[in-house]
Amino acid sequence: MFCQQGTETWLALRASLSLTSSNFGTALGLNRYQSRRKLYHNELPKHHNPAVLTEKELQQAQRQPEISPEVAEAGLAAEALAQRCYCATWHESFRPEHGIWLVLEDPQYAASPDGVTTSLRLWECKHPMDWTPLYEEPKLTHLCQIYGQMAATNVHVADYFVWKNDDDWRNWEVEWDPSTWQAIHRELRKFHQCVLNRTPPPNSSKALVAEWRRTLLNSVQE
Fold it and tell me: What end-to-end distance do the CA atoms of the chain give, in Å?
C-alpha cells in the first residue's frame, strides 16, 4: 500500500505506525548511536496511555529532535544532486511516487525509500558529512532500512548510493533474500512485543552485531 508524502493520510499513517524502516536496525540492536532500549523507551508513549506509565518511563522517553528547515533544505538539495549523478551514471529515471509504503504482510511497519526507478530498482541515498570519508562498507542500519523498503514496495533489488560529490561516491547493490527479511521481521515483532508488555529488550552484544553483519552483507555487492 502506497500513500503520497505530505497528505493528511500520510501524516495519520506515520503517527499510527509501530516503526518505520529507518528504525529497524536500532530495534535489532545494530545502531552505534542509539540503543534498542532507548528506542524502546521512546516507543512506550506511542503504545500506552501516559497515565499508566511510571514517572521513570516518561522521563526516559526522549523527545525526538526536530530537524530545522535549513538542515532539511540542505539535505534535499544534496539528494537532488546525488540523484542527478546517479541518473547520469546509470541512465536511469525515477517514478513520481514519493511517500510511504506499508509492509502488507504486517502493516504496523512501513518504509519511505528515497526513490524507485522506472526500471524498478529502489534507490536509497546517504550523504556523509563533508568532514567524514565515504563508508568503507555498508552500514548495517542502512541495510535493515533497505530491507524494510524492499518488503514494503515489493521491489527486490536496491541501489544503496553514498554520495559526497560527483567525483566522490560509491554504490552497493542490495538483493532481496527472503530468509534475511524473515529474520529481521521476527526480531521486529519481538521488539514490538517488549513495548506492548513494557518489558525492556535485552542489550545488544558484539556477537549479535557480528552475526547480523554476516547475514546482511551476504545480500550486497558493489
Answer: 30
Give the three cell numbers for residue 94. Answer: 525515477
Average pLDDT over the chain, rounded to an integer:
88
**The model's pTM:** 0.90
Of 151, 161, 139, nearest in space to 112 by CA: 151
CB 5 within 8 A of CB 112: yes
Tell the CATH topology of 2-221: Lambda Exonuclease; Chain A (3.90.320)
In tens, the pLDDT along 160-217 reads 999 999 999 999 999 999 999 999 999 999 999 999 999 999 999 999 999 999 999 9
* Cell digits of residue 149: 523498503
Please tell me the distance from the alpha carbon of residue 157 to that of residue 82, in angstroms, as a whole number: 19
- What does DSSP say about strands 19-20 and 109-111: parallel, antiparallel, or unpaired? parallel
Task: Spell out the domain ranges in the chain.
Answer: 2-221
